[in-house]
Amino acid sequence: MMRAADLPPTLPVFPLPGALLLPRARLPLNIFEPRYLAMLDDTMKSDHRLIGMVQPWEMPNSDKTRLHAIGCAGRLTAFSETEDGRYMITLTGISRFRVQKQIQGFTPYICCDVSWNGFERDLGVIEHDPDFNRDYFLRLLGQYFEAEELKTDWDSLRDAEDELLINSLSMLCPFAPEDKQALLEAPSLGTRRETLVTLIEFALRSGGGDERLQ
């Protein structure tokens, strides 16, 4: 656990489309680009060992990309180096943040001034979802996994805590980057679960016929 006072005003940022990190969840990454290898070297020397994960988005009628306003910082909690010079790392989600501005010119990777205001609950205890209808959710998820030809350990899903189940599926399901951003920006676990259900129902309907469970 980190305290609000431990969160830095500036973060190195890794803009990776479709990669979602949420508080208290773990995200494995394979790092090989020279600028991000440099970012990891610098991160390991810092006191906080935090990296900001932010979704980039393409500007209309332009080949330029910008960063979404909200990302999530993860603490470097596992690290190994392969024989060919790649880094295999794990980030553990700490807190979401809002990008204030990008800092230009000092590093080969992106750094941003950030604000942590409004995301105090991310540093708190594990969230629960009192309105979570797990039976309906798992039936719906079964249809979705069958349609997408995905496999999972169903016993683990049935026994998982609300937050672990909802956040893990939000991160792992093959949604579009903009959908991942909507899941990230959900203000509470209940809202994230509602968004996740909507995305799954939409994917089923788009796959042919109205598959929604009643």
TrEMBL record:
PANTHER family assigned: ATP-DEPENDENT PROTEASE LA (LON) DOMAIN PROTEIN
SMART domains, per the entry: LON
Pfam family for this entry, one: LON_substr_bdg
Domain Lon N-terminal: 11-204
Organism in which the protein naturally occurs: Tranquillimonas rosea
Protein name per Swiss-Prot or TrEMBL: Lon N-terminal domain-containing protein
InterPro entries noted in UniProt: Lon_prtase_N (IPR003111), Lon_prtase_N_sf (IPR046336), PUA-like_sf (IPR015947)
